[in-house]
Amino acid sequence: MNLHPSTLLLAFGLILWAACAPVRDDDDSAGDDDDDATDPPPEDCTGVGSSTLAGACIFFESAGGSWSLSEAAAGIEIPYTVLVEAEIPGVVNSKQDAGGCGQPGPSGLILFEDLGGDGERYCLCDTGLCADPPQIPVTIPASETSATFAWTGTNWWGPSDTGNPLGEPFPAGTYTLEVSALGAVDSVEFAVSNSFEVTLTN
Length: 202
Known about the structure:
By secondary structure, this protein is mainly β. It folds into two domains: about 1-35, no CATH class; about 40-200, Immunoglobulin-like, CATH 2.60.40.3880. It is about 10% helix and about 40% strand. Strands 1, 3, 5, 6, 7, 8, 10 and 11 form an eight-stranded mixed beta sheet that branches. β6 (about 110-115) and β7 form a beta hairpin.
């Protein structure tokens, strides 16, 4: 059987494309994307993070990321999304910082970001001492709000009320960023959280 030269060229091109096509390596949060891909926010909270507040969750675009020490020192940002599927009435937020200074973000929840491992830690655990008036139940609206964890690679527990400086840099290693929100609805406590693996290399 004789094939037209253009047919042969097309077949050769398809073989070459298949050989060069990117390979999926199943390492993002959905287990189906390549290294550079990220997942879009989900339509609902099914299987996203950990949550005992029905219809609320925290979503990271991937399961983790890697940066060099110099990249971390220059500043990195890790985006995430807070999803509330439907209006939730009667929410009483809990503050996780030592001085009770946490405030609700655009989602209506008080988020707490905590990065650490192997004796290293970065968080706004101590921003000083704040007045702590009685918490009034509020209604959290349905929403999809974006947030970002920003970090320059150092240890820090926050400025306190004395202007504490940033601490020593984290060494190379693997650490866990956890973002969480605590509170109660009708006196039943809830916790919403998710985590992201941060790897630092030399």
